[in-house]
């Protein structure tokens, strides 16, 4: 299948997915507002080692080089001449992030309204993330979603992480669902590109990343959070068209 065909398919609207079989979620920035904690950890630790001549990284640098990317890719960007050093730095950074997140990890507004909607319709669900396993497990557990997800797919368990489609394709395979009856929730350019490349409509969350950058990745539409009327109008129309397999049965 060509990229062009994938792009056309991804523009399928949410109601066109009826009967809906599954919803796939990214973790960082999609389930919870964790990007400020990542940014803080990177800024403090990079400044400590004199990165960028000791000038703290700004939001623009974080979005362009870090947000949504797999740690291996981040290491290559930040430490191109010393990847092992980059890998060790990122291990330490993730430990700092987990300490910060254990104290404060707010869910995205309306998250539990959407998870309830999904549970009531008996849909399958997966978390699909570029985050390290310890981070993903800690976030999902802290948000009380350990029993909500059928499976957690890690970018590191796939041949290629996001922005490639592999993690989302693996989620479809494990859940035994069709891309034609599944949509994705994502907050980063990297993640939206992965969902689109896997041939699914992507609801983009403009949690932290600039809307113009997210739109370049071709989401079906953008929402501010899970209480956005745009999302619920689409889900209501989906229900009218046949909803989920459970409601259609």
Automatic annotation (TrEMBL):
Q: Which CDD domains match?
A: HAD_BPGM-like
Q: Which InterPro entries match?
A: Beta-PGM-like (IPR051600), HAD-like_sf (IPR036412), HAD-SF_hydro_IA (IPR006439), HAD_2 (IPR041492), HAD_sf (IPR023214), PGP-like_dom2 (IPR023198)
Q: Does the keyword Zinc apply?
A: no
Q: Which UniProt keywords apply?
A: Hydrolase, Magnesium, Metal-binding
**Which coenzyme or cofactor does it need?**
Mg(2+)
Record keyword Endoplasmic reticulum present: no
MF term (GO), any: metal ion binding
A Pfam entry, by short name: HAD_2
User: What NCBIfam families does the database record attribute to this sequence?
Assistant: HAD-SF-IA-v3
This chain's protein is named Haloacid dehalogenase-like hydrolase (HAD) superfamily protein
This chain's source organism reads Theobroma cacao
């Amino acid at each position: 299948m060509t990229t062009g065909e994938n792009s056309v398919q991804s523009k399928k609207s949410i109601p066109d997915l009826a009967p809906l079989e599954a919803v796939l979620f990214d973790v960082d920035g999609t389930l919870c507002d964790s990007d400020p904690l990542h940014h803080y950890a990177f800024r403090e630790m990079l400044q400590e080692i004199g990165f960028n001549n000791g000038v703290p990284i700004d939001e623009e640098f974080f979005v362009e080089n870090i947000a949504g990317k797999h740690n291996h890719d981040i290491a290559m960007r930040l430490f191109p001449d010393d990847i092992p050093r980059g890998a060790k730095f990122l291990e330490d950074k993730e430990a700092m992030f987990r300490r910060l997140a254990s104290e404060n990890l707010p869910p995205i507004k309306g998250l539990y309204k959407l998870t309830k909607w999904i549970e009531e319709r008996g849909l399958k669900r997966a978390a699909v993330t570029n985050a390290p396993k310890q981070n993903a497990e800690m976030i999902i557990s802290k948000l009380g979603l350990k029993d909500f997800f059928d499976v957690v797919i890690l970018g590191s368990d796939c041949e290629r992480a996001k922005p490639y489609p592999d993690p989302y394709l693996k989620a479809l395979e494990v859940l035994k669902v069709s891309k034609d009856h599944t949509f994705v929730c994502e907050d980063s350019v990297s993640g939206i590109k992965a969902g689109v490349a896997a041939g699914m409509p992507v609801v983009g969350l403009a949690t932290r990343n600039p809307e113009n950058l997210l739109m370049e990745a071709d989401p079906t539409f953008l929402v501010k959070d899970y209480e956005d009327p745009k999302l619920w109008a689409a889900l209501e129309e989906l229900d009218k068209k046949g909803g989920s397999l459970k409601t259609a049965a």
